[in-house]
Amino acid sequence: MFIWKRTSNNHEATFTPLKQVIIKGYTDMNPIEGIEVGRNEFNVDATSPIVRASNSKIMDL
Fold it and tell me: Which terminal Cβ of the chain has fewer Cβ within 10 Å, N or C?
């Protein structure tokens, strides 16, 4: 499973295209520590929004 994000600058009237979330220093085939596509997997609760905190860190609520 991949984590994807999109943003809106106009109160959700329109959105940017979806973009895969990749932690700095990793790749699309190894997007976060310990996860390798085709070797293992992870699951994110898709019902919870992913938001950016005031310190610019991405949070999963």
Answer: C
∠3-19-9 over CA atoms, to 5°? 115
> In sequence order, which residues have a C-beta less than 8 Å from that of residue 50 and are 6 or more positions away?
3, 5, 21, 44, 58, 59, 60, 61
The beta-carbon contacts of 42-51 under 8 Å, at least 24 apart in sequence, are 42/1, 43/1, 44/1, 44/3, 50/3, 50/5, 50/21
Instruction: Give the separation between CA 25 and CA 38, rounded to whole angstroms.
Output: 19
Q: What is the mean pLDDT of each run of 10 residues along the chain (61 residues)?
A: 82 88 85 77 59 70 50
Provide the residue count of the chain. 61
